[in-house]
Amino acid sequence: MRSDSALMAMSGAALAIGIPVTLRQLGVIKRLPDVPWRGFDANQVTTSPEAYPIAGIPDGIGACALYATELALLAARRRRKSTWIDRLLAGCVAVGALGAAYYAWQMAAVEKKACIYCLSNITLHFAMVPIAWHLLRGGNHEAS
Q1: pTM of the entire predicted model
Q2: 50-75 burial, b for 16+ CB within 10 Å, e for fewer?
Q3: Residue pair 101/52 in contact by the 8 Å Cβ criterion
Q4: Which residue segments constitute the domains of the chain, with CATH numbers given?
Q5: What does the alpha-carbon distance between residue 96 and residue 118 come to, in Å, rounded to a whole number?
Q6: 3-state SS assignment for residue 114
Q7: How many Cα atoms occupy the beta-carbon half-sphere of 19 within 13 Å?
Q8: 3-class secondary structure, 37
Q9: Residue pLDDT, tens place only, 106-134
């Protein structure tokens, strides 16, 4: 799989995971399905005060906007190679990874609960970092 295809798949998956969380945060849906494991409570985590960090705006909105921006940059990259596109993409991935690290800490230190949706997107964003770095360094060969 090409590096940009891998990033598209990961950004698309993160967007797909983020949409129901955002709908829950907006009150469109009442409850998220959750795993039956001790220590997990997606509904508590995604509706906690920490999930509305700026002016009461759900963090899911920003996360979905980030994933959509990554997809748009990847689509643009396929049509026209540009170091600026690669830099913007790497910046988006870096911001996502920093946000992912922060939210992982929030769940562990503040919430004391985990969200399976959040952990999935945290994992996806960390996995995107070396691939985005590879693209930034001029690569896009078939991933091994």
Answers
A1: 0.91
A2: ebbeeeeebbbebbbebbebbbebbe
A3: no
A4: 3-136 (1.20.1440.130)
A5: 12
A6: strand
A7: 6
A8: coil
A9: 999 999 999 999 999 999 999 999 999 99
